[in-house]
Amino acid sequence: MIAGSAIAAPAGARSGFDSVDPFIGTGGEGHTFPGAVVPFGMIQLSPDTRIQPRKDAYDWAAGYRYNDSTIIGFSHTHFSGTGHSDLGDVLLMPIAGEVKLERGDVDKPGSGYHSRFKHDDEVAQPGYYAVTLDDYGIRAELTATERVGVHRYTFPAGKPAHVLVDLRTSMYDYAGKTLWSRMRLREDGTVTGVRETRGWAPGRQLYFAMRFSQPVSGHALHDTEEDIAYKGFPTPGHQDPRQRAQIEGRELVAAFDFDDATGEQLLVKVSISSVSEDNAIANLEAEVPGWNFDRVRTAARASWTEALSAIEVDAPEDDRTAFYTALYHTLMAPSLFMDSDGRYRGPDNAVHQAEGFRHHSTFSLWDTYRALHPLLTLVQPEQRNSDFVNSMLAHRRHSPYGILPVWSFHGLETWTMVGYHAVPVIADAYLKGIRGFDAGEALQAMVASASYGPYDGLAQYMELGYVPIDEEGEAASKTLEYAYDDWTIARMAEAMGRDDIAATFGKRAGNWRHAFDAETGFMRARKRDGEFRTPFDPSASGYGTDYTEGNAWQYSWYVPQDVAGLIDSLGGDDALVSKLDQVFDAEVDPGLFEHMEDITGLIGWYAHGNEPSHHVAYLYAYAGEPWRTQERLKQIVDSQYAPRPDGLSGNDDLGQMSAWYVFTSLGFYPVAPGSNQYVIGRPFLPRAAMNLPNGKRFTVVADGLDDANPYVGAVLLNGKPLERSYITHEEIMAGGELRFTMQTGADTTWASGAEQRPYSMSGAGG
Amino acid sequence: MIAGSAIAAPAGARSGFDSVDPFIGTGGEGHTFPGAVVPFGMIQLSPDTRIQPRKDAYDWAAGYRYNDSTIIGFSHTHFSGTGHSDLGDVLLMPIAGEVKLERGDVDKPGSGYHSRFKHDDEVAQPGYYAVTLDDYGIRAELTATERVGVHRYTFPAGKPAHVLVDLRTSMYDYAGKTLWSRMRLREDGTVTGVRETRGWAPGRQLYFAMRFSQPVSGHALHDTEEDIAYKGFPTPGHQDPRQRAQIEGRELVAAFDFDDATGEQLLVKVSISSVSEDNAIANLEAEVPGWNFDRVRTAARASWTEALSAIEVDAPEDDRTAFYTALYHTLMAPSLFMDSDGRYRGPDNAVHQAEGFRHHSTFSLWDTYRALHPLLTLVQPEQRNSDFVNSMLAHRRHSPYGILPVWSFHGLETWTMVGYHAVPVIADAYLKGIRGFDAGEALQAMVASASYGPYDGLAQYMELGYVPIDEEGEAASKTLEYAYDDWTIARMAEAMGRDDIAATFGKRAGNWRHAFDAETGFMRARKRDGEFRTPFDPSASGYGTDYTEGNAWQYSWYVPQDVAGLIDSLGGDDALVSKLDQVFDAEVDPGLFEHMEDITGLIGWYAHGNEPSHHVAYLYAYAGEPWRTQERLKQIVDSQYAPRPDGLSGNDDLGQMSAWYVFTSLGFYPVAPGSNQYVIGRPFLPRAAMNLPNGKRFTVVADGLDDANPYVGAVLLNGKPLERSYITHEEIMAGGELRFTMQTGADTTWASGAEQRPYSMSGAGG
């Protein structure tokens, strides 16, 4: 029996816990990691199998690839499902026998400190990961609290036991990435340090503290950097790395020896902090004062069991696995980013104190405003959702630019992707009744973010009503996304009685029209002189073109705030449907996107692996043809998700891909956050009960669910026929039952009437 | 009339203030700077004339060389008189007309933003510096508080006014020195930032805040680094440096425009902090809330007037200038290193809070334990001296190595030079009655520092009684200096009744004997096997040899704790005198030290420009021949000091060279700090009155002082003949008068008796 797999599930109702397979997404395009994390935990402790030069790093954004057979070590910070990457901080590797200081070539066994492993020896559960390191005969187990990673290494008998700590490694490797680092062995055996990196985030400082369950019997602190222009004067012990108390430099690696651990178990506790080494120590002591690995693991299991209990699902095993793994992947970010004393580092790289909220970071907002945040509003306590908003408001207060986060992690801004999508997250939260933040400050922050001229063509957008492509790249996408974001400001301002702001931004919400080319029926980029840029090819794709990670076929449906207006512009319902069909049914040479690693999961032009497509299948419903949405959803679910390591067709993007799956499985999707509408698609689960944060319960039942019954027939809300193809947030939060009867043939009349479709709300401009 | 020279001296007694010439030491070997600083101020705001590659930087250790004719700008941190260097943080240059971003080649006018200047246009006074930048026609004036530098720029009419801020420059320039930096223009016009450097101190973080008296009408933030491996995503305004709100990188330079300053005065206030940008702002607001340059200058003048009033001197003008400039140079370090809220960064690079003391840093202890700290005990309030000790104790508490500072600045340890000379500073303070620190903790820290094995051969020293040269460089010097330091521990332990410690370290104090070679009469380096290293050449000199910055001729007199023992070993008084004469009278080829830039000020082998020689002339008195000391002192004073820019024959070393001059001018010198004895040499001033920190007054009078009367005749202490060649600390602190009658011929009998000589105290081993 494999050590560590001995903790049994609690008795009683079957928990989602056992259905989670953290390996899903670790192959293929998902970029998830299999390691140990608690819900929204600051620590993501996970094995890294390969560290690539940046140009080759895309597939290893989460450190671990299921197809690899070598583990380099276990590092403490990971993104779940990003395209771009960073992190991989403080890598530990247990070693039995001779210590090698270089990680070597993972394709050459014995060339470095890495070790081979087999999937048969791996166990991955929420909050727990275990593997046997074959080159050393070491069983390594990982678990975590919010801010502490706990390692349990079982060393073989007869060989010296060591732990290597490598501060040189990162997800993306390149010269000069580590700006500075420090490692110190304190008298009490605590190891502390810091790593400052120039990565995706600039000048990121990551402090850590580490304690071992057995005394350090020896140590060696090494700086492997060569050709240092000036080394300063030698520190005590410089002649012998075993006598050094501290080391500073840009390429640090240390080996710690444990004479008493040979043939025994050694526990290592590692905490991180953005504030200081002292704070890292405080985090360590606050969360894991003792040396009971199983207690930490059990607590992590309890946290996950509770978090996953937000939705109770009856479904076949594979569907359960796919569903609960998706739900698991939605409960990781935005992650806690605050020390036990409430301090954290902000986008000004200064230390701040959280007052009255728990500060979170890792906001992948271009992705997550779509479905992840709306999902978390339904499955997480209101407090957590308020924390997200308060964290973004704090970011804005600390920002040198005075605006809300765009793509931030570890408190710092990366300026990745486009739009100001903190705005729809806040508006959606407010409009859904979340009140644990200062709405006045929030609205002010939203307006400030939407008015900051130097940001991505925003000055020109405010001047012209669109972003001119001759002055700013990806102008078509930016115009469209700004207009949607503006609409959410108008919606929130209206709800707050701020009619002045509502009027201004309601007008701006109509700016999507400046991108619409009536002649071709596509959204296009206009130049300052008002002309569309030519030549125009709707299939042309590339980074930094007129569109963001896409082309005209993919971006021309981005008017979630005014689909009715889009339909009008296109020439009516049939025009939309026909054009959507052209998207899905196109014969597309996949080679067209070979140079765009983010564009994956192709069905025709539809790219489920990237976010601009996520709402598209639901648009048929706006044209009165919800049965076409039902068809497309089955097409997507069948082809883009599978309960296998390569079962995610695109980057999970901190849970957005998975949130799409969770919503779609339940039978509805938030096409336009800010509207409080969920567009009904079709359910993929026989029965799912949502335990809502207000204590109510909303159940979705799909009678007759079967591959032979792919269409929705009767729809009952609380026993009464529901004639429209959307439900509202208020209806869900009131609790109750949404019952579908699935059938073989399409019901082409249900919700086809003008009044029965999802609709655009006031403030949509025009 | 030159602007800014209008502030008159206060009425009344003539102050030392007017006799200070800050240019002394800025040429030749002194390495002092002429800029604005207050006593022990954290800011040293001074012009930099040339920034050299490290290999050529020795002469520019303080940034300014009197022989240069070009100013690059004004930076805010400088060392006074070091050999090695660093600092030069946050360089400002006012510009009228076109902005150049590169400093250019100072030998080519117009090749960069530097400007020519003339000494005729310079004014330098304590706390004030002014110059005209000829290339721009700008009058630039500088003054300072403890933590704030204030610039006043008078711009010519008709040209755009700018201020350039260069974060790329340092005293020593080399690739990779700046690890990271940041600059931010805040909405209120405050500029803040940080610079992290890998210099003499590793990973030093220097935060700053800057405010202008006129609105910033435009700005441009530039990063001039090329070939960045990975730049991250573009920040808002990246296309136009004038739209950037913040910039981060390794080569930052910014230009700020002031439309309203053309033909007008612009004030710039700049503060620094080791803690954070917010703390830098707080320092700025606490110390210089308004915009009155003259008020700051007047306050600086008042601080200096008070500090210099510790000694009132009647002497010819040149002697006054030399004396008060020397005293001025002794009142700069250890300098304040703590923000207005009491926080500072320590040797663990963490932020700490000073409780009950003001934290100081810049401890050049190998130099300053000799005469600077003993002088400050006499001329500064007891509180300041307690602060020094408390700062060193804090350093030890924060040190990853658990030991007292060796050579620290800006809170960080540089490990420069040898010995653990914080120990004699603390012991001397304690033995002289300074009590504002925890003596128990201090003794513990001293013992810990003297027992830390990995430090510079200390493990072997504790094992063998000497540092073995085959295992550790400069072993002869280290053995000698450790033994002296050990003696001071014994002295303090004895005074505290800790006889156990006194016995241990009293024994160690005798370890100098292990270095003494009876055969050659020199101190030599022994190998582990007990043999002296051969071949032996007492003239052999070089860095990293058997001696520290010297040779056997220079180091063989380093037994301040047991000169009597040394005399015995050499074979008696005559042997010592004869050997000392060989030192001074040798014919030495100066080329011998061409490769050792620190060895300067040669008189034979005697090198007054470096510290190991500083006590040597006083040793004749121990052999009962004080008249020979009198001769040598005149020889040294006449040849090594002059009131001219090149008037210091060696690096001032944070005031040690100057402290030697102050003591020697007064007529006595602390050969063995820890003994409470001052060895009487001969006075060089007709009359000097010390206003002691206890409120008493001790006056030294030299009747008949004249070049024709170079010898001491009668010596009266408080009117009674003083028969011995030393006075005690207690005698000085009691107040009174020491009166010398100078005469033409040597008095060869005075203080020649065994009981009349300075003597070694108990605990000197044996």
From TrEMBL, chains A, B:
Superkingdom: Bacteria
Protein species of origin: Novilysobacter erysipheiresistens
Single GO molecular function: hydrolase activity, acting on glycosyl bonds
Enzyme class of the recorded protein, top EC level: hydrolase
Classification of source organism: Bacteria, Pseudomonadati, Pseudomonadota, Gammaproteobacteria, Lysobacterales
Membrane among keywords: no
Residue ranges annotated for the Glycosyl hydrolase family domain, each copy included: 279-743
EC number(s) stated in the UniProt entry for this protein: 3.2.1.-
Keyword Hydrolase: yes
Protein name as annotated: GH92 family glycosyl hydrolase
Key words, A-Z: Glycosidase, Hydrolase
Residue ranges occupied by any Glycosyl hydrolase family 92 N-terminal domain in the UniProt entry: 20-273
SUPFAM superfamilies, alphabetized: Six-hairpin glycosidases
